[in-house]
Amino acid sequence: MRLRDTPTVEVTARLTCSPERAWALVADIELPTRADGELQRAEWLDGATEVAVGARFRGHNASAQGEWHTEPEIVEVEDGRRWVWRVGPADAPISLWGFEVDADGDRALVRQWAKVGTGRSPLSDFIDQHPDTEAAILDHRMSVWRDSMTANLAVLEQLAG
């Protein structure tokens, strides 16, 4: 695995609720704060109050490596179905993240995914310092993302039940 390949992680769950209920849950930017993961707190910026293209929010994160915040921008919304946010500048995003909801009979199929971008970040800086272990570094980072997303979907299953 190489950074230049912009790796992607995706997790999926079938929820025992309607797609409309699942959408209401995934469109809450505070959802991941209820699960184990790096995101500790999230708040809307610039007067935004809901998922909409151009809306921004601040995410406060923490891990063993320290604390940091990001100010993602929502770059795509298909109301009731999909929303995507970008971390970093439009011309060189650090990462793209998204939630998707599809009908599965009378239930909802929910996906969360994240893709490493081409922008400079602490991750790319660390890889530059340790190029011989790039694959292991990326594998670790993708597993952190996967674990967090899996925890998010477990919270969704509890809330949807």
TrEMBL record:
SUPFAM superfamilies: Bet v1-like. It comes from Rhodococcus olei. InterPro entries: Polyketide_cyclase/dehydratase, START-like_dom_sf. Gene3D superfamilies: 3.30.530.20. Pfam families: Polyketide_cyc2 (PF10604). This is SRPBCC family protein. It comes from the Bacteria.
